[in-house]
Each structure stands twice: as structure tokens, then as C-alpha cells.
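Narrative of activities, Objective 1.

The group set out to show that a structural description can be obtained from nothing but a protein's sequence at a throughput compatible with the screening campaign. Below is one input-output pair from the validation batch, recorded exactly as produced.
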Amino acid sequence: MPKNKTHSGAKKRFRITGSGRVMREQAMRRHYAEHKPTKRTRRLAMDQPVAQADVKKIKKLLGK
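Output recorded for this entry:
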């Protein structure tokens, strides 16, 4: 049987923690940072857990 391939877009956007939670990065941090307060860019730097409704699909895309 052929092996399943990991979804290339998903592996760049999501990661799975040691405890099995799916984490994502927050939007609004890439461009125009000079106009945003430092407080906001620091807050956006933290990873967030993925919504519970999407976890099953993302894990499937990652082959987990």
C-alpha cells in the first residue's frame, strides 16, 4: 500500500504539542508592524490552540 502524504500547507501552519494539542500562530503580525503598538505585536507572538471543531481535520491533514 502507498503511504499517505502530509498536507504541505498544514505542516507549515500547525504543530502538535507533546500533550497532543494542536497549536497555530496568530494573524496580523507579518506586515506594517511599525504602525502597531509593541504590546499588540508581543501578544500576537504567542501561539494559540486551534478551535476544538477543527482539531480532528487538522490532525488528519498532518497524518496524526
